[in-house]
Amino acid sequence: MRIRLLGTGTPTPSLRRMCSGYVVEIGKDVIVFDHGFGAHHRLLELGISPTQVTHFFCSHLHYDHMGDYPRLLLTRWDQGAGLIPDLKVYGPPPFRQVTAALFEEGGAFYPDLVARTEHMCSVSLYHARGGTGERKKPVPIVTEMRPNDVISENGWTVKAVGVAHFGPQLTCYGFRLDTPEGSFVYSGDSGPCASMERLSKDADVLVHMCHYLSGTELCPEFAESCMGHIELAQMGQKAGVKTLVISHVTEQIDQPGVRERVIREMAEIYKGNLVFGEDLMEIPTKVAPAALL
């Protein structure tokens, strides 16, 4: 299993940190978790073609977690030239409605799809890429997951749980991927909650939002919906997570000296392997012992 970080930032525009996105390769499957603005560019930087992506899991419908979903689906379809299956898509309600509003008749990209499937300029490109016969529009296979649903495919499983973030306006999930090679847990966005702690129990890798310095929350609802650094350290330690990756990093903590403070204060509580996430970083599932000098 290979885990890499596509985007470790927030909605705040940044050339260093793209919006949320993560990719896990297991066997022949390439699984993308969230795809916010800029994450698709990072996917290309890693040398992963959109046509290689087999599954997409969306944690929630904030734009910094799904803004590049249309780009992933359309580019994959266009370059795939009918030679690969439609993308398998999973997310919370109303993800099916959102997908329809993008790609089905009357949707944002429907005029583009009509042109690309009917005009001979595009159809000839489709044939040149290896496609045959009539060019069909993409039909993503969308599954709306419910809390505690489990998807099982090719020797791996993904479980979804509801998490504490912007409820009741949004349904938001955390995901756990279990494979023979190890376990990967992704919080989506979440404040402190028992469901994420249970989901993360004994995980090899937990990638979790670390949105602010604990004690500087703007209001009680802010602290309920987003994770501070001390609360994250406490949860990681209690859950027995082996490697904890800080992500969804804000400008507040992404400053010289502050980053070091965050790591130091968290390490006083959390005794596992602590990683300050960066775009394009690869996270090992097994931590090798430190070399003796």
Q: Helix segment count?
A: 10
H/E element order:
EEEHEHHEHHHEEEEEHEHHEHEE
**Helix- and strand-based class?**
alpha/beta
| Biggest sheet strand line-up | 6-5-4-3-2-1-14
Could you describe the 3D structure shown?
With 293 residues, the protein is α/β, with parallel strands linked by helices. Helices cover 28% and strands 24% of the residues. It has ten helices and 14 strands. The strands form two sheets. Strands 6-5-4-3-2-1-14 form a seven-stranded mixed beta sheet. Helix 9 (229-239) runs parallel beside helix 10 (258-267). It is elongated and about 65 Å long.
What tags apply to this protein structure?
about 290 residues; alpha/beta; seven-stranded mixed sheet; 10 helices; about 30% helix
What is the topological layout?
Layout: E1 2-7, E2 21-26, E3 29-35, H1 39-45, E4 55-57, H2 63-66, H3 69-80, E5 88-91, H4 95-103, H5 110-118, H6 120-128, E6 141-144, E7 150-153, E8 156-162, E9 173-179, E10 182-186, H7 194-199, E11 205-209, H8 220-225, H9 229-239, E12 243-247, H10 258-267, E13 273-276, E14 282-283
Parallel strand pairs: 3-4, 4-5, 5-6, 10-11, 11-12, 12-13
Antiparallel strand pairs: 1-2, 1-14, 2-3, 7-8, 8-9, 9-10
